[in-house]
Amino acid sequence: MTRVFSGIQPTGHLTLGNYLGAMRRWAEVDQHRADSLFCVVDLHALTVDHDPARVRRLSRQTATLLLASGLDPEVCTVFLQSHVDEHTRLSYLLECVAADGEVRRMIQYKEKAAKERQRGGSVRLSLLTYPVLMAADILAYGTDEVPVGEDQAQHVELARDLAARFNQRYGHTFVVPRSTLPQVAARVMNLQDPTRKMGKSEDSGAGVVYLLDEPDVVRKKVLRAVTDSGREVVYDRAERPGVANLLDILAACTGGNPESLADVYDSYGSLKKDTAEAVVEVLRPVQARHRELCADPVYVEGVLRDGAEKARALARPTVDTAYRAIGLLPPV
Ligand code: ATP
Ligand code: MG
C-alpha cells in the first residue's frame, strides 16, 4: 500500500491556504487510499522566534483542526513530531549526507532568514537545517508520497536527493518519495498582496483567511481583497494575480475550474461575493467539528498518544537500519 506522510507547523493559526493546499486532500483523498501519517511538526516551529506557551497552545489547536478537517484516527495516524524521537535521530544522519550549499539555496530559508534579520533577530541554525529534519520526517516512514502545497515541493526534492544519495553510499535504506500537489489552489496567495503566499506566520491577518475566522470576518477579508484596475474577469496569474487568486479559491471551494469560472463573471464585485460565500461554506463544517472537539480534549490527547505509539513503531526499524548502514555499532 502507498505510504503517505505530511505535516503542518504550529507556527500560527491555520489558514485557507493550508486547508486548500494540503489538509483537505489529506482528509478527503489520501487517508482513504493510502496508509497515511499526518504530523503536527512542532520542532519546526522552534526554528523562528517563538513563545513557548503559544507553541504549546497552537500544537493542540493544530492537532484539533486536523481532526476537525476530517482526519479519522481509525484510518490514519495523527501525532506530534516531538513525541517520536526517531525524527531527530534520523535528522542528524541526514545532516551527514546533505551539503551545506544545497540547504542554503532553499527559497524558504532565504525568505524566512531575511525576515528574521529584518526584525533585528539572529537566524537560528535550525532554520537552515529545517529541510533536513523535514527529510527525516518523510524518510523515517518509508514514504512514497508527500501531499503538500507548491511552496514545499523544493523541500521534498531535497528529501528525494538525500534518500537517493544515502542509498547509493550506504546501501538501500530509504524509499525515494515524491510530492503530490493539488490541481487547483496549490499556492493560495495573500488577499492583500497577491504576489505573496498566504502564510500562517504573517504579521498582518488582513490578507489571510484563518480556518477559525467567523463568517463575517471571512466575508470582509474576501470583499476587501486587492484586485487590479482592470474590469474584465480573466484568469491570468502573471498579469492579474489578485483576480486569479480569487478564481483559484472559488474553483477549489466549488470543485470548478478557474478558467471556466472566469467566463461566468462580469464584475469583480460578484466574483468576490460568491468567493466569500463559497469559503464560508467550506469552513462551516470544519468549525462546527472543531467546537465539538474542543469540548473533548481528552479524546484529542488519546488520539495523539496512540498516534505517536504507532508512528514510533513504524519509524524505528528504518531509522535503526540507517544507523547500522552509515557505520554505527548497535548498542551492547
Ligand atoms: P509558515 O508561514 O509558518 O511557514 P505555512 O502557512 O506556510 O506556515 P506550513 O506549516 O509551512 O504552513 O505548511 C503546511 C502545509 O500547507 C504545506 O503542505 C504547505 O505547502 C501548505 N501551504 C502553506 N501555505 C499554503 C498556501 N498559501 N497555499 C497552498 N498551500 C499552502
Ligand atoms: Mg510554510
Would you mind describing this structure in some detail?
- This protein has 332 residues and is mainly α.
- It has two domains: 3-181 and 297-326, Rossmann fold; 185-295, Tyrosyl-Transfer RNA Synthetase.
- The protein is 55% helix and 7% strand.
- The chain has a three-stranded parallel beta sheet with strand order 1-2-3. Strands 4-5 form a two-stranded parallel ribbon.
- Helix 3 runs parallel beside helix 12.
- The longest helix has 30 residues, at 297-326.
- It starts with a strand and ends in a 6-residue tail after the last helix.
- The structure holds adenosine-5'-triphosphate (ATP) and magnesium ion (MG).
- GO terms for molecular function: tryptophan-tRNA ligase activity.
- Its EC number is 6.1.1.2.
- This is Tryptophan--tRNA ligase.
- A motif ('HIGH' region) lies at residues 10-18.
- Belongs to the class-I aminoacyl-tRNA synthetase family.
What would you say about this model in short?
It is an enzyme of class 6 (ligase). With 332 residues, this protein is mainly alpha-helical. Helices cover 55% and strands 7% of the residues.
